[in-house]
Amino acid sequence: MDYPLTLETALAVYDVLIEECGASDKGRDRDAFIYTQTKKPICVEWRFCGKLGFGGKFWNNSKFYISCYSENETAERLAMINAANARLTELYQKHLAEHPPA
After folding, report:
1. Tens of pLDDT along 5-53?
2. 25 lies in a domain?
3. Domain extent for 70
4. Distance from C-alpha of 84 to C-alpha of 66, rounded to nearest angstrom
5. pLDDT tens-place string over residues 66-76
6. Is there a domain that residue 15 lies in?
7. Bridge partner list, 60
8. For labelling alongside 2, which of 34, 41, 81, 93 has CA 20 to 30 A away?
9. Which whole-number Å values give the CA distances from 67 to 27, 44, 80, 97, 101, in the listed order?
10. 50 lies in a domain?
11. Which residues have C-beta within 8 Å of that of residue 82, sequence separation ≥ 6?
12. CA-CA distance, 82 to 75, in Å (whole number)?
């Protein structure tokens, strides 16, 4: 996806990052994410760290998903990633249905 997200979608994505992966809930962290996802050009790779370590990233390139560095993967982190990615897939589908690309 190469177009900005709506404020509603960007907020929902960041909520997933907080709830599933321990992303920072400090105002400036959330605000920076919202800004980079709702303005053009969008940021397709956002490092949020959280419980996934320095490699914890949100991706917005043809789908929404998160990942971490493979060397940092643990069973606990993979479970977080799977839970977050399931929710992010739903958000992506909803966003596309409500705001199809022009």
Report:
1. 999 999 999 999 999 999 999 879 999 999 999 998 888 999 999 999 9
2. yes
3. 7-78
4. 7
5. 999 999 999 99
6. yes
7. 64
8. 81
9. 23, 13, 10, 25, 25
10. yes
11. none
12. 10
pLDDT, mean of residues 95-101: 88
Residue 87 exposure: Cα atoms within 13 Å on the Cβ side:
18
* Token reading at 12: 């929902």
Distance between CA atoms of residues 40 and 84, nearest Å: 25
> 63 vs 24, 44, 59, 93, CA distance in Å?
22, 10, 7, 9
Token pair listed for 77: 């982190």
The total number of structural domains in the chain stands at: 1
Q: Which amino acid is at 14?
A: Y
Q: Which amino acid is at 16?
A: V
User: Does pLDDT of 100 surpass 90?
Assistant: no
User: Which pair of structure tokens corresponds to residue 55?
Assistant: 């490699």
